[in-house]
Amino acid sequence: MRYHQIVRESFNDPLPFTWAFRNETQHMATFRAGKLTYAVSFTLHDAAKGMWECQFALYKRRLFRSFKLSTGLTNTGSQFTIFATIFACIKDFIHQQHPPILYFTAKGDSRDRLYQMLLKRFAPDLARLGYDANTGDDPTGLADRLYVLYSRSRDTR
To answer: If DSSP codes are grouped into helix, strand and coil, which group holds residue 56?
Structure first.
């Protein structure tokens, strides 16, 4: 088996995830990889345009049902499975909510290259859902790159 085929197939086996909560402006899915719990959070930022932000990171539970997302590498050795699960959450969110625009950001060249590769890998899945992807500089200046998934119809409501 060639290296590229191994990498491609390693994204085909996501972990089970559950929706921790869903409301009109926020959804959050969680899953476990080993002893660590991860969260994939979707937050509505512009209701008029249907713009949702996606964040994914380690999940740390706090008192009184609040939570903290902690970004950074975990060196678990299961990054392919983790990203496959994150994308499974994204696909499920798109299937359930049909957001016109879903975006996420990245800081640093290594994350940029990873996210570019992930978007390329999952482009056929996005196309089947009626979505395309685009990248650019983050206009807020908070991150280096902005990644946008947008519905081809933009009239999904």
So the answer is: strand
The amino acid present at 152, given as its one-letter code, is: R
Q: Which domain holds residue 28?
A: 3-151
Residue 37 lies in a domain: yes
In a domain, 93, yes or no: yes
What would the pLDDT profile of 135-155 be if each residue is shown by its tens digit? 887 766 667 788 889 998 865
Assess if residue 140 is contained within a domain. Answer: yes
Q: Residue 45 is part of a domain; what is its CATH number?
A: 3.40.630
CA distances from 111 to 48, 81, 84, 118 (A): 30, 17, 16, 10
Q: How much is the pTM?
A: 0.81
At 109, list the tokens: 């060249």
Q: What is the DSSP letter of 16?
A: P
Q: How many domains does the chain have?
A: 1
What sign has the CA pseudo-torsion 33, 36, 37, 40? Answer: negative
Q: Interhelix angle for 109-128 vs 79-97, to 10°?
A: 50
